Amino acid sequence: MKLCMIGTGYVGLVSGVCFADLGNDVICVDKDEDKINKLKKGIIPIYEPGLEELVKKNYKSKKLSFTSNISEAIKKSNIIFICVGTPTKKNSNAADLSQIFNVAKEISKNIKSFKIIINKSTVPVTTGDEVEKIISKKVNKKLFSVVSNPEFLREGDAVRDFIYPDRVVIGTSNKKTNKVLKSLYSPLISKGAKYINTSRRGAELIKYASNAFLATKISFINELANLCEKTGVNVEDISIGMGLDKRIGGRFLRAGPAYGGSCFPKDTRAIVDTGNKFKTDLSIIKAVIKSNKDRSKLLLNRVSKILKNRIRNKKICFLGVTFKANTDDMRESSSIKMIPYLSNKGAKITYFDPTGYKKEFKNFKNVFNAKTIKEACEDSDLIIIHTEWNDFKTLNFDKLNKKKNFFIYDMRNILQNEKIKKNNKRYFGIGK
To answer: Mean pLDDT across the stretch 315-322?
Structure first.
């Protein structure tokens, strides 16, 4: 099939590349010409394991192409995916849908034959209705079908999640369109993916509901971790004991910092905003948002206690600063709150992240990017494992840091060095 992916962020690029790898002809479109030129050279704008190899492979085979010419891409394609950003509006909880609607206007200018238009971006309920209205102002409704097909890709595991999805959700009442899309996704269905055909609004809400529920699981276990620290219980035992119940499941029950990234923060806010528009109080999700907002404060309080309330002039090392491992995404990472706070309190901060320097900290004079783990840890008073990169799991901190008295705060409970973990005076975990 001939596909067009409008937007080359996580969703558009990963989906486009994977569809090409399944044998489809895919055109990835972005208005950023510099990004398009880099993609043609095999330079990937995001860190995502396995993606670079697939881009190079499918671009070489000519199953995948890149362009900034949206008009030509639309005309050459049968199925058009809208994969642009839906960030939170300034001074509001609502999703900013301006990019979605601008793309819809561009599509309406270039439809000469029947097109299936798929909204793959995360959008509030009724967005598909609005997209249909915009296009129908210039195009006969017989010439297009608007569908909601939400993505469920985890950053750091996006390629695998696309190839081996739990489910494929298609929101359309058009039988012919549904048949075409079931055929498009047939290679994934044959691998065990559940195919769900629902209403367009239903598909839109499934995505928001899923993210809100996963955010709730994270906040829930984080709050239990607080209780575990007060009662002398190991939160990891609680996670295992709960997770073995099939009604609950073990995924997203790992205590740690506040959730971040491109999805959970904005999507929980957006679904609350949608609830307000439809006069429905989503009190549980509101509580989740508040709990997550408070999380960094609680962790910073514990940092202060570990250092006996003496933060000034202390050297603090952060291992990992992205919101999760296997991604370079800094969006709403808890480190963005924690590092400036500690810096303003007079601490000298050195961080190491496998994905390199972060511009988010460039305006802080006493925040430094280390090129190696050893450079980051050396002479530190406190080493904080902030992100669960595999690189940090088996480190020998006594070799990395010659200082006799230093502390380790493992915010992900990943450290496998039993000798250090047994030294309660030096090692601190989450929920234990």
So the answer is: 98
SS (H, E, C) 99-138: HHHHHHHHHHCCCCCCEEEEECCCCCCCHHHHHHHHHHCC
Catalogue all structural domains in the chain, each as residue range(s) with its CATH number.
2-198 (3.40.50.720), 233-432 (3.40.50.720)
Q: Nearest 5°: phi and psi at 5?
A: -110, 110
Angle ∠(128,129,135) on CA atoms, nearest 5: 85
Q: Which residues are catalytic?
A: 263
The CA dihedral of 343, 355, 152, 149, to the nearest 10 degrees, is 110
> Using an 8 Å Cβ cutoff, are 201 and 123 in contact?
no
Centroid of chain to Cα 333: 10
Residue 316 to residue 352: CA distance in whole angstroms: 11
Burial 275-290 (b: 16+ CB within 10 A, else e): beeeeeebeebeebbe
The residue that leads in pLDDT, 213 or 404, is 213
Average pLDDT, the chain: 96
* Residue 213 and residue 282 in contact, taking contact as beta carbons nearer than 8 Å: no
Joined together, the tokens standing for residue 377 give 């840890």
What pLDDT score was predicted for residue 127? 98
- pLDDT more than 90, % of the chain: 97
- pLDDT of the residue at 283: 98
> pLDDT confidence of 422, banded at 50, 70, 90?
confident
Instruction: Give the integer Cα–Cα distance in Å for 144 and 146.
Output: 7
Residue with tokens 């190491």: 352
Cα distances (Å, whole numbers) of residue 277 to 124, 201, 270: 11, 15, 11
Give the pLDDT confidence of 217-257 residue by residue, as tens digits. 999 999 999 999 999 999 999 999 999 999 999 999 999 99
pLDDT at 86: 96
Residue 188's pLDDT is what?
98
Q: How far apart are CA 50 and CA 308, in angstroms?
A: 44
Give the pair of three-digit tokens for residue 347.
């601490």
